[in-house]
Each structure stands twice: as C-alpha cells, then as structure tokens.
Amino acid sequence: MPDKLTLQQLERFLWESADILRGNMDASEFKDYTFGMLFLKRLSDAFEEEKESVDEHYLSRGKSRAEAENLSSDEGEYTFFVPDRALWSNLKDHKHDIGSELNKATEAIEEYNPSLEGVLVSIDFNIKNKLSDKKLQDLLSHFSKYRLRNEDFGSPDLLGSAYEYLIKKFADSAGKKGGEFYTPSEVVWLLVSLLKPTAGMKIYDPTAGSGGMLIQTRNYLIGQGENAQNLSLYGQEMNLNTWAICKMNMFLHGVFNADIRKGDTLGDPQHTRGGELMFFDRVIANPPFSLKKWGKDAADSDPYGRYPYGTPPKDAGDLAFIQHMIASLNAEGKMGVVVPHGVLFRGSSEKDIRKGILEDDLLEAVVGLPSALFYGTGIPAALLIINKNKPSDRKGKVLFINGELGFTQGKTQNKLRDEDIQHILNVYDAYEDEKRYSKVVSMDEIRENDYNLNIRRYADTSPPPEQFDVKAILRGGIPVSEVEDEYIQETLEGMDVSCVFVRRDNEYYDFKPEIETKEQIREYLGDADQTVINQFERWWDKYRVSLHEIDTQVKESEEVMRGYLKELGYE
Predict the structure, then answer these.
(1) What is the C-alpha to C-alpha distance for residues 244 and 32, in angstroms, rounded to an integer?
(2) How many Å apart are CA 412 and CA 376, to the nearest integer?
(3) pLDDT bucket at 1, cuts 50 / 70 / 90
(4) Nearest Cα to Cα of residue 430 among 381, 393, 389, 382
(5) What pTM was computed for the model?
(6) If you average pLDDT over residues 16-23, what whole number do you get?
(7) What is the phi-psi region of residue 118: left when phi exceeds 0, alpha when psi lies from -120 to 50, beta otherwise?
(8) Over 90: is that where the pLDDT of 304 sits?
(9) What is the pLDDT of residues 322-332, one digit of tens each?
(10) Among 341, 347, 476, 540, which residue has the least CB neighbours within 10 Å?
C-alpha cells in the first residue's frame, strides 16, 4: 500500500501543474485548464474506485466476474458516471489532437451526468495558440503522477482543502481579477461564525464566486460537531467560468447536492418557487462593490417586490444586493454581507433605504474591517449583520465594532489573525461596549445622526491628541500626569515605569542617568511589546533634550567657536 497523500504534497503538486501552463496566458486564464484537468482526473479515479466497489458487491453475492462487470456498467449505479472515452487511462496516452479529444471527453461526461451540464464544456482545451499538444501532453503526464482516489488521501477532505489552496494561489497571481472569484478565507470564516449556521438550515449565496462561503458554512458545522451533510446549499453566479469553478469546488469537497445556478441574480434570480423568491435560514455574500449598470430600470418595476425601501442609484448596486438578500430571508432568517463603507453614509436614495432597514429594526451589527484585506482594492470594507428575529435585548439597537486596527501586514495584502477574528466574535456575542472598539447605539441616537452609520462616529479607535507639557519641553523631565493618563496606561498595560524612569519630584520623572541614548531604552524594557517601546522612545524625543539644555549647548558652542576664531587671528 503506497503512502497516503498529504495536504502539503497535494498543494505542491497542483501548483506545479499551473507552472506548466505559464507563458502563453495569464493567471486568470490558466486556472480554468488546471481546474479542468484536476476535475477530469479526480472524476475518473473516483469512478474507477466506485466501480471496483460495485463489482465486489455483485461478486460477494455470487455473481461471476462477467456478470458483475455487466451489472456494474449500468450508469445508475454511480454518483457520477464516466464513459470509456473520458477515463483517464484512455486520455493520458494521447499524442495528437489532444485538445479535441479532451473536449470530446468533457462533452461525454456531461451527456451522462446532467448535474454537471456546462461545468466542463465551458473550458475549451482545443486552443492551439495557447495549448499546444506538447503542453497538454505535459499536463496529462503530470496529473498521472498521483492517483486521486479517496483511499489515497491522508484526510477525508484533503482534495477539497487543496482545491481551496489552489483557488487562493490563482487569486494571488491574478491580482485585481482575483477579487472576482475569491474572498479571503479569514473574512469568510468571520462572517460565517457571526451567522452561526446549524444543521438542517438552508444557506444561500447570491453572488457565489468560487463557492468559498458555502463551503466554509459546511466547515463551520463540522467544527461544531454537527452533521455537515444535513445542510442545503444554494448559490448563483453570473460569470460562467467562475460558476464552473464553484461547481467543481462543491464536487471536490464531496458536496453533490448543492444547487448552484448560472445568471445575474439581480436581473434574473434563479432560486424561485411559484413565481416568488425562495426563503432561506441564512444568506451570506460578498457582492461586487458599487456595481455600475446593475439594472436600476428593471428594478423600478421588480416582479419579486425586492425593493420596498427604494432602488439605489444606477451606478452603485450595493443596496440592491442587500435588499435582494433581505427579501430572500425567512421570518427568522439572518444574513451577513460585505460592503464598502460608502453604503454606511452615502445620501439621497441610499439614505432612504438605510432608514427603511433601520426603522424596521433589521440591522443587528456593523463590523468595520482593516484596509487592504481584499483583492483588487485597498479600501476598508464592513460587514452588515441583518437579523429578522433580533433577540429582545437587541431590539432598537445596533452594535458597532471597529476592527480596523486588528490585522497583520502582508506584502500586498493585510490579513486577519485568529485573535482579531475571536475579538470581534466575543464582542458580538456579548453585545456590549468596549472602549475604542465597540459601542451599542440606540435607534434614537442613529436618528439624531440622520441615519449615518459611519463606524468611527460611534466606535472611534483614534487615540486622544498627543500631550505636550510646555514646562517639560523647556526644562526637561517626563510629566507624571502624562504617564498616568488613562490612554497611556492602556498602552503600557499598567507596567512599572521605574525600570526606565527615576522620580525627580511629585510632578516629573527623568530617564535613568545610565540611559544615555534612545537605543538603550530597549535593553531596560526587556521583552516589552513594541508599542510600549515606541511610547518610551516618543517621550525621549519629546522631553529628553529640553530647550534649556539646547540653549546651554548653543552658548557652549559659541564659546568654543570664539576660541577657534581667536586662534586663527580673527579676534
């Protein structure tokens, strides 16, 4: 029995397959071919594994080998049926016209599996100027290195996890275009955790992208020890290639019953029943920010009644998506959506829509996120949590959380850390004020602010103005009142400052006489946090060299200069 594949092996293997395609196309293109080849290989290997199981079943019931193989050729025996011409064993050795043969294989798979219709044929392998027979041969050879059966994986969801990794890598490479199909997993996990889905729920993503939000909802249930199979997943995606990636993502995670539709959610919602929108327990989405030409004209006479609070401007569709999501919630439903900050305070028709949502007491929380988390934009975003069944103690209130400072900085993007996510979740669950981080605001106060939801208006992370003691600037010394200031004490976390300072009198400290340079401060602070070190260094810069000392030094320098001039005969 060969060693089972690890996640690290599989991730490296899949990314190497992308390297084969580099050269004639950019990352936003070659992801489709890598995903397509992976899907073909996995489908074929899983089918052969299942076929062997079916054969063994009939053999165990006394059938001959010939009888068993005849019975196992019935396509109704399988989750997905793969015809002979699409089996990997029949594809891997093609030498000529490979693109055409791969296209025929994908067409044959879809012919036998209606649920996969449009998934693979959206990928055209027969583009000679980009995919030569040599390139395709190299791809086939590469994907033949590993068998991708369930029994070959070191963990149950190994292939799904590796696929998610690959999607992220492609998003990294695609830059701005990456935002069209991928939301950073940390943001998705935060949003899912705020919504707290449970087994038996119907979950809907109207702008599904590559399906990450739906998959993370499933992962959340697994983490809670619940049955992830007892979850109904629905989604819609307008971009055909992204829709195909989403369908493959579901398959590779072993989710075969997800209902992912194609099309423009605002212009032509697909999840309807009897001419009405379907209702869901949880709705979750990261719609395109401020989408232009989203369909305002049609929305003014929307047949589904999705815009009771009015239609937003034609060049900013954010609140159109939000109202569609609200209309898709059942009476006890809850939703989470990623929005640009403009949604929180823009005026005109958008203010009227905000007013309607607020007066109907639907908004439960507004969560501000750090800047530069998302692909293609450096602007900060926010999460809106809307609840049609707010608990009694949250009615008539909105919780504002300002998480703009909680992140780690990356080369091109910032990232939420586990502790940043947990901080937000803890404050949301407690639904309480935290200084310079969160505030529970009454509807009366929001009305007074004309329905403006600007987060800093309610939960401002800005530090108080820098203090300057004129006497200390003139004479030196660090003011005791400044050290004992409430904000400074938060920064210092109540530490004993005597490791750096000595008391001059009741009003001022001095730096210890043995600390002669600013660089030495770090030595005396030991393993203190960098923010603490920064504070002491600021005090050094502000007060260590007083104006009185500078004046004395200037006079001393003048005396020395006079001595030089006298020696040179100028006096």
Answers:
(1) 9
(2) 10
(3) very low
(4) 393
(5) 0.81
(6) 82
(7) left
(8) yes
(9) 999 999 999 99
(10) 347
Measured CA to CA, the distance from residue 163 to residue 166 in angstroms comes to: 5
Structure tokens at 63: 């059938």
Do 295 and 264 form a contact (C-beta atoms < 8 A)? yes
Report the distance separating Cα 50 and Cα 33, nearest Å.
Answer: 25
8 Å CB contact between 39 and 248: yes
**Dist CA 481 CA 509 (whole Å):** 10
Q: Is the torsion defined by CA of 384, 390, 391, 397 positive or negative?
A: positive
Q: Closest Cα partner for 398 from 434, 435, 445?
A: 445
Element (H, E) at 367: strand 363-368
**Mean of the pLDDT values across residues 141-159?**
86
- First and final C-alpha spacing in the chain: 98
Q: Tell me the backbone φ, ψ of residue 437, rounded to 5 degrees.
A: -145, -45
- The region, left, alpha or beta by phi > 0 then psi within -120 to 50, assigned to residue 36 is alpha
- Greater confidence (163 vs 198) lies with 198
Alpha carbons 458 and 442: distance in angstroms, whole number: 11
Structural element, H or E, at residue 335: strand 329-340
Q: Which residue has the tokens 């000595």?
A: 502
DSSP element (H, E) containing 30: helix 27-60
Q: What is the pLDDT of residues 71-105, one digit of tens each?
A: 888 888 888 999 999 999 999 988 889 999 999 99
Query: Does 175 score more than 60 pLDDT?
Result: no
Nearest residue to 48 (alpha-carbon basis) of 10, 86, 19: 86
The closest alpha carbon to 28, from 247, 180, 212, 251, belongs to 180
Average pLDDT of 365-387? 88
Q: Where are the alpha helices (DSSP H) in 263-317?
A: 296-299
Q: Is the pLDDT at 165 greater than 60, yes or no?
A: yes
Q: At what angle do helices 212-223 and 158-174 cross, to 10 degrees?
A: 140
Q: How many residues does the chain have?
A: 571
